[in-house]
Design goal:
By secondary structure, the protein is mainly β. Helix content is 8%, strand content 46%. It folds into 2 domains: 82 residues, Nucleic acid-binding proteins (OB fold (Dihydrolipoamide Acetyltransferase, E2P)); 76 residues, OB fold (Dihydrolipoamide Acetyltransferase, E2P) (Beta Barrel), CATH 2.40.50.
């Protein structure tokens, strides 16, 4: 019976399921017919989450899309984010190259600092943009003015530069 149930979901199929557990590695969802599938962390949301409980709780109904089925192992791979609008595509549609936008510093790194240019979209401001500027020392939470230099939907990267006067 488990074998026939595991074969019933088809890749691309959308199901409504019940969250059975939330763990550090993903969300286990009962999609009916005795079949449970796993939504791994990267498949939960387009934005980075510090805790999966921000978007999923045990007992909640959730819509998922079936990514794959492995009948031999009894695994069903699911996605929640594939049913949500991609914020990067929206950003690419509504933002012009050269456009200046306010962005919030989210992370400091040896190669520069990361800013959130739109909800769930991060971009790197390279250290070369501000090296030698003694008056500029970014801190997490600061708002800075950046100029959009590129949006690559394939690599999922937004390229920005610190705007002059930013």
């Amino acid at each position: 019976m488990r074998q026939s149930a595991i074969e019933s979901p088809q890749p691309g199929e959308v199901r409504t399921g019940i969250v059975r557990s939330v763990a550090h590695f993903g969300v286990l969802v009962d999609i009916g017919g005795g079949v449970e599938g796993l939504v791994t962390v990267p498949q939960v949301s387009w934005k980075r989450l510090s805790d999966l409980s921000e978007v999923a709780e045990v007992g909640a109904k959730v819509n998922v899309v079936v990514l794959g089925v492995d009948p031999e192992r009894g695994d069903v791979s699911l996605s929640i984010k594939d049913l949500l609008p991609d914020p990067l595509q929206d950003f690419a549609r509504t933002t012009r190259l050269g456009q200046r936008i306010q962005a919030r510093v989210t992370t400091l790194a040896p190669i520069g600092f990361f800013v959130e240019v739109a909800e769930g979209i991060q971009a790197l401001v390279p250290v070369s943009d501000y090296a030698g500027r003694t008056e500029f020392g970014p801190q997490v939470g600061d708002d800075v003015l950046v100029e959009v230099r590129g949006v690559n939907l394939y690599t999922r990267r937004v390229t920005v530069a610190l705007a002059v006067g930013g």
